[in-house]
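FAQ: What does a ligand-bound record look like?

Like this one, built around adenosine-5'-diphosphate:
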Amino acid sequence: MHDNPFRPGFGISPPLLAGRDALLAEWREVLGLGAWSPFRAALVTGMRGVGKTVLLNAVEDEARGRGWTVVHGTLHVGLVEALERDRLPALLQAQDPEAYARELTGVTLPQLGGATTQVVPQYPREPRLESMLARLVELTEARGAGVLLSLDEVAVESMQELRRIAIAVQHLLREDRRVAIVAAGVPASIAAALEADGLTFFRRAQQVRLDTLTLAEARAAIAEPVRAHGRSIGEAALERAARASEGYPFLVQTIGARAWEHRPADDEITADAVEHAVEVAYATMGESVIVPALRGLSGRDRDYLLAMAEDDGPATTADVAERMGATSGNAGRQRARLLDAGVIVVPGRGLVDFAIPRMREHLREHPHDAQLGLPTAARRTFRD
Ligand SMILES: Nc1ncnc2c1ncn2[C@@H]1O[C@H](COP(=O)(O)OP(=O)(O)O)[C@@H](O)[C@H]1O
Ligand SMILES: [Mg+2]
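The answer part, i.e. the structure of the complex:
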């Protein structure tokens, strides 16, 4: 009867993008005719599920809404080649009336509809990222717009691709052309990009660290879509749903979706439905978020997390080192790496805490995940 408005998962824009208005205003500045803005080159970082991809989506929508041309890419080996061979030629063809000599090759019967046109592209021989991008920028500038490059999933393996693109864009930025670039990745990947040779350009870029939502933002992200789609949610149920999400966008959407569909024919989403939803949503955290986050870590890093999980709240770095049987200097190295990876936070001097909701509980229930990094479900099946 009612379509579920929530968007659990990754990469799919939510019904209400909560808490990102101020950031989007910065990009609107870039896209408008205003003065130079540091957001013309921006690096978005934050842990998995915090909303990097959907923020890029929103920036891209803003750009398109102002007539800008968007070049979107997920970083992978071969991206530059794909851009040069297919994507940029297609964009240029769509924009540039002179680039393609149109040759009438035949006339079909009028009642079957018009003429056949053969298109002869000018660009394909020596594809050059720099020259194609420059031409694309030139064409969009003529329309009073520009080009936005939006690059998702910055990863260590595709640093060479990022470097190639950065060089091309840097050149245009220096000439103060209408071009903007935004790249997103988890903190460890962004840290690697900042250290990589040939990517010094990004050290001057605007760093955007995405945080979890505030309680008020999480409440709005749940309540507004519910109301907009013709249902209601009681105050206690809303408060419980928002608090249980810990402001983590992935959980906001998952709890919202599961609560919505619990009794879809009811007008009101009850506390009971939320309770059920929270349980289901927490159960998905392991495989969707926590195990993937553990997978990129070393055994020693994971030992650090296990030692932290012994406390119910923030742990002192001294306790963690002692539990690991390590000197505080050695444990300090793990701490730095985990901070870089966006897995832990420092809530106060000498303290560490988990950055990802449910990680503590997950590690207590599945300590083997910390040792092996295998999905829990797979191991269960194996045992049965
Ligand atoms: N600001 C937000 N408000 C509400 N939901 C959000 C917000 N940001 C992200 N989400 C939701 O959270 C989930 C994860 O977002 P995504 O952009 O894929 O994260 P990331 O790319 O950082 O891993 C998606 O279901 C998305 O709809
Ligand atoms: Mg993403």
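Follow-up question: can I read anything off the structure? Yes, for example: Residues 271-295 form the longest helix (25 residues).
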